[in-house]
Amino acid sequence: MNAAGSRFAVLGPIRAWRGSEALPSGTPQQRALLAVLLLRDGRTATAPELIDAIWGEDPPQQALATIRTYASRLRKVLDPGMLVTESGGYAIHTPAGALDLGVARSLASEAEHARAAGDRPLARTLLARALDLWDGEPLAGVPGPHAETERTRLAEWRLQLLETRLDLDLEVGHHAEAVSELTALTAAHPLRERLRELLMLALYRSGRQAEALAVYADTRRLLADELGVDPRPELSALQQRILRADAELARAEDSAPAARPIQVRPAQLPATVPDFTGRSKLVAELGDTLAEADGQVMAVSALAGIGGVGKTTLAVHVAHAARPHFPDGQLYVDLQGTEPRPAEPVAVLGSFLRALGTPDTAIPDTAAERAALYRSTLDGRRVLVLLDNARDAAQVRPLLPGTAGCAALVTSRVRMAGLAGAHLVDLDVMSPEEALQLFTRIVGAERVGAERQAALDVVGACGFLPLAIRIAASRLAARRTWTVSVLAAKLADERRRLDELQAGDLAVKATFELGYGQLEPAQQRAFRLLGLADGPDISLAAAAAALDRPEHGTEDLLEALVDCSLLESAAPGRYRFHDLVRLYARACAERDEQPPSERDAALDRLLDFYLATASAVYAVERPGDRLPAHLSATHYPGLRFSDSRAALDWLYAEADPLLACVRQAAVRTTGQADVLRRAVDLLWAAKDLAESGANSKQYESAAVALRDAAHAAKDPHAEGRARTTLTNVHLVAGRFGEADDEARRAMVLAREAGDPLPSCWAPNDRGIIALYQGRHADGERYLLEAIENFRADANHIGEASALCNLSRIHVELGRLTSAIELAEQGIAIYDRMGLTLRLANGRYALGIALTEAGRLAEAQEQLTEALSLFHDNRQPLWEGVTHFRLAVAHLAAHRPTLAAAHAEQAIALRGIGGEWRRATVLTVLGKALRRLGQRDRARVCWRDAESIFAQLGSAELAEVRALLAAEIPA
Fold this sequence. Notes:
Blueprint: E1 6-9, E2 15-18, E3 21-23, H1 28-38, E4 45-46, H2 47-55, H3 63-77, E5 83-86, E6 89-92, H4 100-116, H5 120-132, H6 145-171, H7 175-188, H8 193-205, H9 209-226, H10 233-243, H11 280-291, E7 299-304, H12 311-321, E8 330-334, H13 345-355, H14 367-378, E9 384-390, H15 393-396, E10 407-412, E11 423-426, H16 432-443, H17 445-450, H18 452-461, H19 466-477, H20 484-492, H21 494-500, E12 502-503, E13 506-507, H22 508-517, H23 521-530, E14 538-539, H24 540-547, H25 551-563, E15 568-571, E16 574-576, H26 579-592, H27 597-621, H28 627-630, H29 644-653, H30 655-667, H31 673-685, H32 696-712, H33 716-733, H34 736-753, H35 756-773, H36 776-792, H37 796-812, H38 816-833, H39 836-852, H40 856-872, H41 876-892, H42 896-908, H43 914-931, H44 935-952, H45 957-966
Parallel strand pairs: 7-10, 7-11, 8-9, 9-10
Antiparallel strand pairs: 1-2, 2-3, 4-6, 5-6, 12-13, 14-16, 15-16
Helix pairs in contact: 1-3, 4-5, 5-6, 6-7, 6-8, 7-8, 7-42, 8-9, 8-10, 9-10, 9-44, 11-12, 13-14, 16-18, 16-19, 18-20, 21-26, 23-25, 23-26, 24-25, 24-27, 27-29, 27-30, 27-31, 30-31, 30-32, 31-32, 31-33, 32-33, 33-34, 33-35, 34-35, 35-36, 35-37, 36-37, 37-38, 37-39, 38-39, 39-40, 39-41, ...
């Protein structure tokens, strides 16, 4: 909206501003006059029209004079010339963007065009911006029949925009997130069938087919009871498609139109492979670029990528397809850029001139003269030049045509950033579907069809690299007695994989060797040592630690490896290896790294870096916590953070490589107790990842590996800590029996090792477990022990945590006064230490106690504050359970719509908290839906909960069965 002059808002209370200064809008009738004029889009409103709009059929005797007074007052506060008198009436002329309604209309129009063009994400964003302009009820507090009519119209338009945005949500795959909003909207607008239709579709795409069908049943009954009609045909058709489990219905639409294939044919080129597969978008992209040579500029495309990725194959295929655009011929040369002595431009120019019909006697001697003659010979002709396997841009420049109508296609392992105006393409490996298709074309559909999973394992082991797939497939095709499974088994051994990937004169290792041989010694060292680290990628800071070099020097080395296509730039400041290149780098490390101890030293520095930095994250997020003081000492420094947001950004960005480092440490700890202990401590310092949802399984895998390694090493210190981290994993997942087993063993090991960390946290965890299992006396005993141990360790934060947990035990025992007092004691400690995340846990516990005490308004206040803190600290597990507790509180306060909305938001955080928590949420959601009259959907929720509780053997099963029994028709 216009920020310099006057601005107006009608999508809420009538308001006006000049810049950032709010302008007085006067009495309600004066605001009514302003609203009428603003909504006429600059058209004049006559005096009778204004009187009718403001007062309707009962105007005051001095209505005309009153309007003139209002107009005079408005003219004094508005920009000069904005309110004008015309033909006995008035008009307001506002510039574009000055009225929020006009902005909303523009955004809605842009969204419509974006959707028509196939850009659904943009359309969704534009509609969201339009909807954000609403600030409550339109024209709020404005009297008069005109305002009432406009309020209704604008509210209906907002609902239509909202339906369109929700429709787009489903089209781009955000169905799980849409369920909560649609549940609340259908409760608010129960007879609006389009919202019901969208809710059914969102539930179906979220895997909740039974609930989707229950929505239809509820809708049909409601329409029959209220209006005596059946659902509209679209809703009935959707129900039938859901009943048939229509596969098309479950698929979100593509957000971009399919690429247009280009049918073109070049000439005088190497033969294209008969089994060329995939790359359809790149073929179209490159074909379009080459076709630009028909215009006024010479087209240059440069393909870069790792050896074996298919650069030459793709370039030859595209060049053949471009033949109609270049009727005057095609030139080709292998520039031997990976060889010790690459082709000289002067020699290539000589061969090109001969191919173009220049006699040997007319070919000059120098490179500059030959280049000039080459460009002159091509002038006025339409020729395609394919420069394959170039070493660098300097080798390519003299070979480029210089006139319109010609084009050059370049392939290289080095990115040709130095070629001005070139269309640069970084060629990646094949998609899994393309890789399987190539493998099938070589091996045969019958053999692959019989062992499809084994074939997928083969192409996966090949890293989807075309050369590796071709070699593996060719080996299998030549051995009729082998099955696909035999080949998959051979490639499963990482240490032998590169040796297996060779056939005849083709070998993946030889291809990589060419690139490695061209590196400088420092680059070779970086390549070898970084290849040792597990994980999908590595950050610049972590790489600098592994290499023991400053970041700026490390960045130069890594960018050089990227330029040579031996390393990929995954994102700014992040790097990754192709799987097969990593194996080759490790082989080089075993062969070339001297002394061999340098390999372990590099991984030790990386482990130290992660531990030191994760400890810093923990300290920033939980100031005053005693954990960092109990962690192993590190010899390599980590990063430091000034605020919690930056710290958490780092932790979640590094989650995968950090956990991979932990798992790798668990494997290499033989005879290295310090490595094992540092790895366990790293896992504990990164405990937030256990509750993140996205990283929970990897965290659990790492915890199990460390527990087993510590047990094998007979290290009670490391094993006790590993079991405590695993206790937390099982607690988060709702596996209380397994959690209690791990915590019990951790307490024994802690006493044996004299380690205060598990001595404090393991009984605290056992208290929580006992709470969930209904063993309240045991829980109280464990938590009192935890409080005593925390106090002995001067761990005030742990003490506060145990006090809040004890509060929940007292809630279950009916001691509500002491429960509230305990939670308040915990909050007081958190407040004193300035802890926001932990304060959220305290408010959560207090909210539960207040709910049970019937102090619902206070409970909702505490829980809402906790929810905000959990969200800000990226704690999705705790966000989910707090939504659940808010649902319980709203249900107790007889607000089923809000209860259902919070329950849906808890469910939307799927995969977090395990099946037990999901079943508890479904139980409350069913209760809310039942009060909203959605009986069928409520029964579906309870049946799902019943199934989960029965499978887990949970005590909550009895309550759910009672709810279902009460719903059985007489």
